[in-house]
Amino acid sequence: MLDLRVVDRLNRRIGEVVSYVFLVSVAIMAYEVAARYLFGAPTIWAHESTITLTALGFLFGGAYTLQRREHIQITALYRLFPRRVRWVADVVAHLVMLFYVGVLIYAGWIVAAKAWASMETSASAWNQPTPVVIKTALVVGSLLLALQGLVHLLQLLGLARRGDDDTEAR
Amino acid sequence: MDLGSTTVLILAGISLLLAIGVPLAFTTGAVAMVAALLAFGPNSLTLIASRTYSLVSEFVLVAVPMFILMASILERSGVARDLFKAMHLLAGGLRGGLALQTMAVAVVMAAMTGIIGGEIVLLGLIALPQMLRLGYDRKLAIGVVCAGGSLGTMIPPSIVLIVYGLTANVSIGDLFVATLLPGLLLAGLYAAYILLRCHLDPSLGPPAPPEERKLPLGEKLALARGLLLPLLVVVWVLGTIYAGIASVSEAAGMGVLGAMASALVRRELTWEIVRHSLYRTMTTCGMLLWLTFGANALIGVYNLMGGTRFIQDLMTGLPISPILIILMMMLILVVLGLFMDWIGILLLTMPIFVPIVVALEFDPVWFGVLFCMNMQISYLTPPFGPACFYLKSVAPPDIELGEIFNAMWPFIGLQVLGLALVLVFPDIALWLPRVLFG
Fold first, then answer.
1. What is the pTM of this model?
2. Which of A146, B24, B45, B134: CA 20 to 30 A from A106?
3. Would you state the pLDDT for residue A164?
4. What range does the domain containing A39 cover?
């Protein structure tokens, strides 16, 4: 049996580290407000860097949320299914998810590659390649999400060892 | 294939996938991808990725994690407990006083948080055991906690309003001002109901014994000191938005700073609290945003097919008066609210409904308030009222889910009354923004 719990640990760790972007955003906004009202000199970088940072949080948040199994489902009917049917439904659900995220990776890749090729910048006063960062994060965040989904699927099929923290999956 | 059958197919696909338990975020996303592939071919897929990119590049979205972080920090501190204690000194002696003070705490907490869940859990842990101990009517006590705790997304700040503003292209500042009075109206209706019930039958909510309501002056002062800063944070955050000094996102960011400062003054600020609040923010954002990506993709594809236009023509072509169309939308929202979460409903219906509302010459801000009130109902209604599940997770074990749902009916009635009032008298919502912003 495969032991892929390393993916769980990886996604958890990445999610935890990336979550600090929100704290850094608070600091940047505080600096911007102080700069504007106390020193009368607003920055040109605060606005965009906050957007970029929180976007990283959002894009990487998908995989972290999946690892913690906190994506919203409607379980009304699901709970009425017998065990066997539930298992089939779970497998289908994971395949649907992998299809969606797979296509998103493909589409995101094309968009990101285009941004890289021209080193696309934000066309603002600051004019930094923030679009490249965000578009790349969409691909990487989706990849991590797909990876986590794949591990869950393999665990479901009995091909991989279950995580320590989700003996009672869902 | 004509648009009618495509629409039916899309709806059927969504229902089927949701029924077997596919998370909403991936259901809408997968259906969007299939629809895009079939209708426009693989080249259209990059459009979906580009839409996701523009979505996360919106500055107003920054407010979402900020308000969640602010609420997580305040919820982890002892502010709610102290607030409850302070209110007890004021209202504990009244008939139904404990329920009233719970409602008052709920309103203040609602002005600190913009999301449902945390507040109900807190009230369920702090207020519910106290009411039960005093021999309150169980239904009344349960109802107050769930209905009051749900006000978090009604009284600004509110994540529901931020997402609505973004989807409907309406100023979030306007929305924050417009929901204030309707939110207080709901709280007022709940309070009036508590007073009336306990007046007619004093055994429903006995007053607290006097010795419980005595506190040495020194402790009173300490209590007041601990509450001063958190309350100032609320006034500050909403004040800067109302006065137009800060954008909603910046105000929210300053709110986080304020929440940390109050926790620091209360000597409750630890690295543990900050860390866990950040993790909570990450999962809540991951959940909300990925849901938004999926729905945004689906609406984008549907729009491209001309679907939005199609539904709009269908509805405005109905031989009924405009207000009946609004009523019909409200009914659709209530029905969807029985099964779905507010975010799913908002993202899937509002891009279609709001243009119709505007075409009928109604105010989209007013409609946003109506939507928000409608979602208050959805929190309480069985079979999936999230408020009831949050309470169940912390309530004493002898309180069954069935009993919780049973306790909701009077409060659902009051919510419908509140909704009807704002529907008939739009000025309850629109008067304050007019006065403030002209």
1. 0.92
2. B24
3. 55
4. 5-156
